[in-house]
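Need tokens for this chain, all 491 residues.
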Amino acid sequence: AVVVAFVKGPAGRLVGFGVSLATLGLAVAVAVRYVQGGAEGLAEQVPWIRAFGAWYALGLDGMGLLMVLMTALIVPVVLLAEWRTGEDATSGRWGVAAYSALVLALESLALFVFLASDVLLFYFFFEATLIPMYFLIGGWGGVNRRAAAVKFLLYSLLGGLVMLFSVIGVGVVQADTGTPSYLLSDLTRLSIPAHLEPWLFAGFMIAFVIKAPMVPLHTWLPDVAGEATPGSSTLLVGVLDKIGTFGMLKLCLGIFPETSRDVAPVMIALAVVSVLYGALAAIGQRDLMRFVAFTSVSHFGFMVMGIFAFTTSSIAGSVLYMLNHGFSTAAMFLVLGFLVRRRGSALIADTRGVFQVAPVLAGLSLVAGLSSLALPGTGSFVSEFLVLAGTWQRHPGWAAVALLGTVLAALYVLWVYQRVMTGPPTDEVRASVTRDLDGRERLVTAPLVVVLLVLGFFPKPALDVVAPLVQQTMSHVGVADPAPVAKGTNR
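Here are the structure tokens for all 491 residues:
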């Protein structure tokens, strides 16, 4: 990122894209090594702040590996999709090289979050991701992008400050044992006083609920998605927002297992509210980018519901949902972004009949939409099915209500597609959408579609990677899958 920032003009864009491909190659190499030999040798631990017991500690588990691979693939896709970003006069000093540098900086910080095994280090990079994301939102996008960037920053800083209280708290409790440490391996064995644990848990959970985002702390996301570039929205929703659900699993369930069990009914209820509210709000949207943002609010509800249902299937489904949602949301944001740039408007009412003038664009938008509504054959179906099936084992009532979100997803995806893509094109559409997707734009969407289809028909490798983490989490929280009830039959 630093190198790219000092390379002027289009050369910086090329260097940035090359670095993102090299990072992807390294991530794949790490994945191969992990599958062959596990996490052994893929960790480092160096003293950082001895007085606090803080370590520069990085490690990898199955969930972290999937998040690393997802991030490493989405970044070059975004850089290729935003190849022209920064070339117009309205960007001012925010040129193409600056955009690439900020994206690489964001990727670096996000990877640190997914790899950190020290809570203080996790918090440091959790907060640091806000800096490049703030400038990506405020530097490029719609006319109200700066206001959206400030709103994003304020919400995120609020969550970060509340989380800092809990980070300090668990550090103090650990120090009282005589051995100061912020290592997650030490904190997961820490006995926190009963009167203090719920408050420390709340500090982490509020930060992650804002990041995820969940109702009622979700209002910043649609504003940002409506103003940021499609690539920036992809990085925010597809990568950074996963830190919320990632943190719930790794930190909340890891450090506070008893409180996690106690608050599970409340979290499941909030998750179902997010599922239904996000779906209903998506149906009522007039802006394509805000529409995608509200679909994500609904999807994050499914992820959180699966985490706190506490079954093997639901937790595995939530982790897989995090992966699939990253790719399906990227496809929706980027393909619809190509349309918005051609049409010059994100309003649904301004566009009709795109299929007749840009059939490839319309077809790929349908594929992205069908993945979003969890059509069988796409990765999203596998993850959503696992979440619902696992939740049904313990909370059949909540699973039945959440199932309405799947029905509403079919409604909002197909209704928007019908209004925008089908029918006779208007004169304005014919005049503005004068060409279909070019080679670069098709190359952008190709890997996303391939991954979604592969995970839809062959999810076993991803599920095998997360299986040890799921079993470890279930054991640590102290829960087991409900025993099947055998019912007799009349003969």
